[in-house]
Amino acid sequence: xxxxxxxxxxxxSVNPIGLGTNAVGGHNLYPNMLDEEQGKNVVRxxxxxxxxxxxxxxIYGPKRSEELIGEVIRExxxxxxxxATKAAHKFVGNDTVxxxxxxxxxxxxxxxxxxxxxxxxxxFYIHFPDEDxxxxxxxxxxxxxxxxxxxxxxxxxxxxxDQLKEANQDGYxxxxxxxxxxxxxxxxxxxxxxxxENNITFIPYFPLESGxxxxxxxxxxxxxxxxxDNPNFQGQQFLDxxxxxxxxxxxxxxxxxxxxHIVLAWYFTQPSVDVIIPxxxxxxxxxxxxxxxxxxxxxxxxxxxxxxxx
Length: 310
Ligand code: NAP
Fold this sequence. Notes:
There is one protein chain. By secondary structure, the chain is α/β, with parallel strands linked by helices. The protein is 37% helix and 13% strand. A seven-stranded parallel beta sheet has the order 3-4-5-8-9-10-11. Strands 1-2 form a two-stranded antiparallel sheet. β9, α5 and β10 (175-179) form a beta-alpha-beta unit. α1 (36-48) packs across α2 (64-73), α1 (36-48) runs parallel beside α10 and α2 packs across α3. NADP nicotinamide-adenine-dinucleotide phosphate (NAP) binds at residues 20-23, 55, 157-158, 177, 205-211, 214, 216, 260, 277-281, 285, 288-289.
């Protein structure tokens, strides 16, 4: 069995491979991509096979991802599942704004508890920063919820380093979730020195760059969902990325593994990255990605991969 790791300073123990569920009920993000029963089966496959961390958010659906996860986790022992969710998005007329005010976050937790059909959330994140709320005040509200047993640990997501430092001024932040993958490596310089020093787990999102780094696309692939707007999927940049991925394929072949496994395994060699949450749209992807926790890359290959994406 793969060794579990702790989330930040909390006593929450997770399998290093979690499941990103923005495609499960995330009809606003991946229109017509997978139906709800397929989505629930993706989650069940994870929970049946040793994955315990499920990563969702209010805005996936919106609301529907949390609701579907709520339906699935009722089928399991609650203590065997680690549910992470996020809030900050507020609908004002036709606009979506961010709100980190204590009142909004507290209501957000209450609403998420109902959708998830549970009486506690293991990891609750402020999904995005707003412009107004002092971050220590926002996290202070989450600390109150933690003291009341409604949440078990505190996360922030998409915060700048300064916002993270402010949020963590009393040492309450367990997890920072931010965009990080081999094609977007800013976090190594921006966050890792601070997160490793302060015992904050860094959970990368888009670890596979929405599937690109899984190594299955070729120059003729086309995209119609949120990937269509991502420069990494367009023109020469897309072709350059495919070339880099082909170089990883040579390394993957040596290990007898798939490109996705090697890419995911590489993240564990980075400071404060102990947990990853690759998304999946099919049960076989969930099972496949678990391989990553069992691969040990040689130092030489860690460097080679780093150099390919330098
Ligand atoms: P990702 O993990 O980079 O890519 C996941 C996609 O890659 C899957 O949906 C699947 O898409 C493909 N894939 C996965 N495993 C594969 C395999 N073994 N072989 C081939 N293809 C595979 O992107 P993501 O799911 O968007 O991000 C991960 C999680 O991070 C999300 O689910 C969400 O929970 C979280 N997230 C958080 C934020 C935030 O603001 N905090 C933002 C974005 C995401 P296809 O089959 O369609 O190729």
